[in-house]
């Protein structure tokens, strides 16, 4: 009896179960990270409820509908970004939020989904692999919103939009020679970016990667304390609510960007294996959904959304364990925070929709 | 489902799957990378990090720097830090917390909200940490508690510094304010540098000189025990206080300007034409910045936002107005410099002007006209027909290129964020927007109407440039910096914006003479303010239309709704012989420049030139 109901609700069990498990872990770790304060766990609980609600809703929308909406979603997102930019100029100071009376929202969040959708939409109407001209158009679709968001300035989100669109380009079969050329160009321009475009503190963040002791109050301290937290966790961890690093305030931003360190300290390597399993399960499931998807649009979209999710995971844990510079990317599903959670759950809703509407699409 | 031109499905699927495979391998490699790092941290180096964690007894705590003061040119304090008394309790030091609280309730008022937050923090925070009970104790309250302190173990009165603007609303559009660091700021700033600080400059000088005012955060390395209790301070790197900033603003003059504007909407900008120093930067209505410091309540903020007079708008910086007749001296100079007219060329003004082959009559403000006028009379009496003709003869492109050196349509580069551009439109500008240029628009540009917009700051800068013989100085609010500990003064050197214009001295003198005639001449439009004047002013009145008036209508001030009435403008500098102050005044819907705007400029100049001379 359960299967037909779940199918009718367009829920993919293999995605749903690990998502729920990670949400529960999130609430437990948050309680500990916020100093045994129930408030933030309760707030996160309601955010998760809203997130899952959005996931259910999006899962009901047929991929064909998503396909038809794509240009509008992208267009609206772009318009809102431009409005935000203009408002930001006249209203002075970065204005990333648009007020809709009761709800405030960030148009850049729309673009996290809108940009990869638009590129997938574009490619679905062209023969693949894309020729240089199509790659150029797709690059414009990605770079325009990226630039608008970066100008706000919100570099973290800009990076996410850029990578989500980039994954679509890669999956669509963009030529290797072109990829290599771009990588070479990027590598060649890195010193220029370093000297001319990065702020002092951004350079500092990269430098502290090699010498964490050099910046006692800033990111070096963050990384060092975070590494101590992770390392002192050992195999079994110090136990829930017993992590001294987090509870004695050594660990900064323990509820948001560095929540993984709290988890690693309290649950040890075994806990980490569990979390890795859950995240990888989701990623593998996403990849499977992408291979089963039956048209260009849905499979490019499913592939890109899944890889973006993994990208978040990788960047956050890389940052917490001291292999990547501190860039301020939250750990998806577990970090405290609302606006990006909604986008994330909408993305999972799309994945579910792509998979569960599959057979009907085939006809 | 999709309308696809030529798609090779097999090939596409093959490519997609191979790409997916590659990313799958990539995911696996990256995961292994992370896992091996975690194996290294948690398994191989576990002992090392466990020891570090055990020995993690030094907790660095930030010491926020003291924000620099903002003072006017005479040392009048515009922004300062004053101590706010807070009442804090260290729970473990109290004998009986409930008794302490009841005792305190008899001494000071404790709102239910105060108690609620206190109780919440009590549960959450270690018992050896001090927990905030109330802020903003009045002197009386602080004294009452202080007397009883010997009987109140664990209770502390602390003083925290808070930003305060002692002059309230005065000069808020120049000084700006600080407010709580918001989510938007967090993305922009180096959060490490702001640890321990709750406020950041949001507007005005507070914003543009944030990095100087802020200073540098200090660190206190405290040794703590295994339960986190602070044992002793091992090392202390003191914070570096921010620089004190002396502005060029003269608070007294600023208050003269704001009082003269009264409750009208308008702006006054006064510059020192030689240095570019901003002496007055007023925009009315003003508002009190103090409530913004700790977060203004929604209701007051909404009231400010919805106030039809829009007090939050910085009119001096962002108000864009048609310059009206105040453009005429610049246009006249352009006419002379370009050789379009000679100083003696006259025009017969019959009260209206028409383009050849067109019936439309561009009217002069004076019915019947001014008769035969040369440039001097045309400026002094503000003859419109003269300038209609001049504009048409010069052509809009030449007008634009000759007005640009005075800064029309360009940012002045004042040391504030968000300056408006103004506008000096050309056919090319319109064409870029897909519109056509009409000959009538050139005519209207002759009297500063139509597609010409200036901010009060730009106008002041333009008239200062005239006064300074054509050299445009960058308007500067900052006069000099002072290091609060060493008292070393760091000067701000005046800079010119553009290269010196090569202006014909005779032409310039004629323009200045005609502007002097505006105030001191028998027929000058600004002659009302020459009463009892013991120095000489060169000025120009202006009236800028808000509502367009049909060919058959006449403008009737009394019967026009206030918001549609003309804006009144006046630009001036004085003394004519050795200019020390240049002023632009705009009064929104103020009617005529000579009656509303000019007297304000006179008051300002009297205050600056006359009373200063006496002292």
Outline of the structure:
Helix content of chain A is about 75%, strand content about 0%. Chain A is mainly alpha-helical. Mean pLDDT of chain A is about 85; it is low at about 90-95 and about 100-105.
Question: Overview of this structure, please?
Answer:
The complex is a heterodimer of chains A (363) and B (615). Chain A is mainly α and 363 residues long. Chain A contains 15 helices and 2 strands. Chain A has a two-stranded antiparallel ribbon with strand order 1-2. In chain B, strands 2, 3, 4, 5, 10, 19 and 20 form a 7-stranded mixed beta sheet that branches. Chain B has a 5-stranded antiparallel beta sheet with strand order 12-11-23-22-21. A 3-stranded antiparallel beta sheet of chain B has the order 1-8-9, with no helix packed on it. In chain B, strand 19 and strand 20 form a beta hairpin. In chain B, helix 14 packs across helix 17 and helix 16 crosses helix 19. Chains A and B meet through helix 4, helix 7, helix 9, helix 10 and helix 11 of A and helix 1, helix 2, strand 1 and helix 7 of B.
Notable features of this structure?
heterodimer, A: about 375 residues, mainly alpha, B: about 625 residues, alpha+beta, 7-stranded mixed beta sheet, 5-stranded antiparallel beta sheet, 23 strands
Q: What oligomeric assembly is this protein in?
A: heterodimer
Number of helices of chain A: 15
The strand order across the widest sheet of chain A is 1-2
> How many individual helices of chain B?
22
Contiguous runs where pLDDT drops below 50 for at least 5 residues of chain A: 89-97, 99-103
Largest sheet of chain A: 2 strands, antiparallel
Low-confidence stretches of chain B: none
Helix content of chain B: 25-40%
Rg of Cα set of chain B? 33 Å
Instruction: Provide the residue-averaged pLDDT of chain A.
Output: 84
